Amino acid sequence: MSVDVVRQLIDYQAFYHRFQPILNLNSQTIVGYEALLRSEWIDAPDEFFRSIQDRETLLKLDKLSVSHAVKQFNESDVSSGVLCINVLPSTVSTVDFPSFLSGLVNDYHMAPDQVIVELVELEAIKNLDSLKESVQQLKDYGFLLSIDDVGKGSSSFRLMIELEPDIIKMDRYFTSELAYSTLKQKMIESLIGYCKETNTQFILEGIESASHLDVARQLGVEQGQGFYLAEPFLL
Prior knowledge:
- This is EAL domain-containing protein (Putative c-di-GMP-specific phosphodiesterase class I).
- Helix content is 43%, strand content 20%.
- The protein is an alpha/beta fold.
- The chain has an eight-stranded mixed beta barrel, surrounded by four helices.
- The protein is globular and about 50 Å long.
- The model has no long low-confidence stretch (mean pLDDT 93).
């Protein structure tokens, strides 16, 4: 996608968000929602973000997406649950992002712990120290931190150690063929054990069938996300 098209998408704000519920697998109740950016101009959002080379343009779009997600969530009829917003590490690392998010949430009279900053690994992390500093500021404001797609990217396990997130979301790869893979089952069990030891919430992504759900429950997974549980929808 050309730079001009990206800039037009930003100028016209030609995007919106769908919200996918996160469920407690035992009670089948919704505990939160993940905001997913969508646009008639974009076929694959992840690839779209990866294609943007200009850092300032990427930052502007990412912050605008965050603003829209919070606005949509606040203006919806949802009365409970938390909001997960996907944010690039480079955006989180900018000096003003913690204060930007704090001001945004205050404007909508939301509590910081209603908002989970979900780090998405769509880019290489160039300055881990800056990221750690910004993450600590976000935590000081009262926001929660989640690491998305754990096990997919090359640095996700390192980020678990360095950033001490409140939540980890295990990549859908580990859910695929889960009933037939003892290795995937053991990996999930080991991550659940780690989360219990470190007081970290564990969410399994990609639950797309009854067998996925059954095995996840047997392994001790308490929270999950996937099309079998609930599809993304407009609030």
